[in-house]
Please model this.
Amino acid sequence: MKRINRAQLKQLVEATLFVADKPMSKSRLRETTLAAFAVSDKQLSSVIEELILDYQPRGIQLVEVASGYRFQSLDSLAPLLSVLWQESAPKYSRAMLETLALIAYRQPITRGEIEQVRGVAVSSNIIKTLTEREWIKTVGHKEVPGRPALYATTKAFLDYFSLKSLAELPSAEQFDVLANQDSDDTEVPSAMSDRTNDKPEPESLPTNE
Amino acid sequence: MKRINRAQLKQLVEATLFVADKPMSKSRLRETTLAAFAVSDKQLSSVIEELILDYQPRGIQLVEVASGYRFQSLDSLAPLLSVLWQESAPKYSRAMLETLALIAYRQPITRGEIEQVRGVAVSSNIIKTLTEREWIKTVGHKEVPGRPALYATTKAFLDYFSLKSLAELPSAEQFDVLANQDSDDTEVPSAMSDRTNDKPEPESLPTNE
Amino acid sequence: MSEFQDAGPVQQPLPLAFIHGQALIEKPQDLYIPPEALEVILESFEGPLDLLLYLIKKQKFDITTLPVAQITAQYMEYVEAMTALKLELAAEYLVMAAVLAEIKSRLLLPKPPSDNAEEDDPRAELIRRLKEYEVVKDAAREIDAQPRIGRDIYAVRGEVGQPVQPVKIDPDVALDDIVHAFRNAMKRAAAFEHHTIEKEVLSTRERMSRIMEQVSDEHYTPLDALFTFDEGRAGCVVSFLAILELVKEQMILCTQAGPYARIYVKLGGYEED
Model:
């Protein structure tokens, strides 16, 4: 293990996060550019914290999202920066957003369960698009006839929406309230009452790495 | 034309250069993100100069290249950053493995001698790849016209295959006997017509699994 | 609570649809709707729950006190209008119509004595579903408002200062592969010799004869004159082998004045010096 001084470590972490094409976690940093160096957890954390502070007043920010740290433009500059790209950001249909919301809040969930809550069929196209965007993935199959796929959101979904974990999703409390109501409700065979707790844990659940 | 204060201008220029996927000249900046603002040449130049200075001690630098300004990682960090990009080399072709095998069992051996046994030319690429992997090396020259290089395997070759010495290579004689037994094989002539010795053909590799 | 919910549907209604550029705020009170408009209205709803929620909000009813009679009547008007216009009505709308009809009829029936009146309310399940759907609808809206890459955030794409060579991961090789490769090479070599000797001998012999014809015993022929470019490498090799064979068999004689000098060929064996 080679030695690296603090200034060099800071430069290396900064440059790595800058050139990487995806957010990088501390452990990913350790596996790649820091692999050859003796760096303590404390050192690495303090260097990253310092970088976050360094960039606070700047036009770009170092932020933590689900799968790690990344540099991104200052939120308030987005409208001005959008002229750099010809194409505007895609808009998503309500059907797609509602499906995504259900997968995000109720994961793991089957297509049938989504349809039950929404009251309409979920088109295969929506599932396909969300899968292709790598926002959702199949995390298992429900042990009921037909063994339907169980969907969950991915870290890429959280990254895209600048979230560190599912807990940061807006209106998470409302869902909690609903879920609690359901659990008290013994009579109504609800869409949620058949959810079990022994489902495979999706990767995108809040983590503390 | 809207007004923009110096701090905002600096943030906007910084963010633009950070998120743009190409270097941007001052005029390109004026045409895009600065289009709506009243900015003098002097202001713009001084903001860019200030940014260049700001980043001087950092792992990322603002530099001017032919087509404009761009942020890039510190030159000296490039070798450390290269681990972020990894490429898997294609599996070795049969030609490569046979060449290596002949060098291992018949060392020291010239390229011509390998060609004689294999019945086809040995591409320079094969010798280069094996040399770069440090599995073979030139140990001398054969005292015949042209003084061809004599190849032998290295210690790294033995290490890779967990061999203490060449004597531990599975007995060649044993295979010679086998080879003689198999030489009646009717399939053999078809193997001779194979001239694609540079191309990977992993499927045709004999395996013992 | 989102803007949409805070604003009463009457004071600040959300346009249901845009028809020929005009916002259609509310379903016209008399049920006459131009067919194209109804189609758009239908498309603007994400299913029967969405339509029911719209009707409830429009009448400023509370979901929890779901006035089944009124809502059912309005819902049926929609469904009937859609059916009358022969619009392709999603099956879900008809299922909901049946649910509403069932609830209505159960409410009309005399209530059997029960300990828990609340649980027996036939509206309970529909109310629960409506509340649940409303939460999902809000959540979808909030996810949409969440900052996203490409719209609110631009990710940084950094360049490396110097061109970097990607780290190459060498393929794995098993010792067995080497042994088999050796075995195969030897196996083929045996076959190769066997086949080629016959072939090559023939063509070399043939070439030997032709070379014998070309050279004379009177004067020297330059060696390079025996090679023709149009034959390609294989032809040159055959010629070369033929010459070597001829020299070996002392049928021709090669002489060279000095190192790197031109080589000349003459018919006949080594001259007895």
About this structure: The radius of gyration of chain C is 48 Å.
